[in-house]
Amino acid sequence: RRASKSSAYICPYPNCSKRFVRRQSLQLHQICHSGQKPYSCTYCEKQFARKHDMNRHARKHTGELPYQCIFCEKGFARPDARKRHYQF
């Protein structure tokens, strides 16, 4: 359902107060509640509810390290790992 004036779409599931600016974002979010996992890893067939999570998982197989430290050029598979590196 759409909230008034804030142009936010509110998740209708009980105990979930997430809001989204776009309807498509709400629809993607609702997959988490449904239990559906429409995205499968092409390497091991593990299934995911979100495409982003599948892509992040696939880096374990490919060894891709797209997030580089700007100081030492060390590569990381995830931005949160690079952020932890910066804190040292």
From TrEMBL:
C2H2-type domain: residues covered: 9-38, 39-66
Molecular function as annotated in GO: DNA-binding transcription factor activity, RNA polymerase II-specific; RNA polymerase II cis-regulatory region sequence-specific DNA binding; zinc ion binding
Keywords assigned by UniProt, alphabetized: Metal-binding, Zinc, Zinc-finger
SMART domains with a match to the protein in the record: ZnF_C2H2
Record has Cell inner membrane as a keyword: no
Gene3D superfamilies recorded: Classic Zinc Finger
Identification of the protein by name: C2H2-type domain-containing protein
The organism of origin for this protein: Basidiobolus meristosporus CBS 931.73
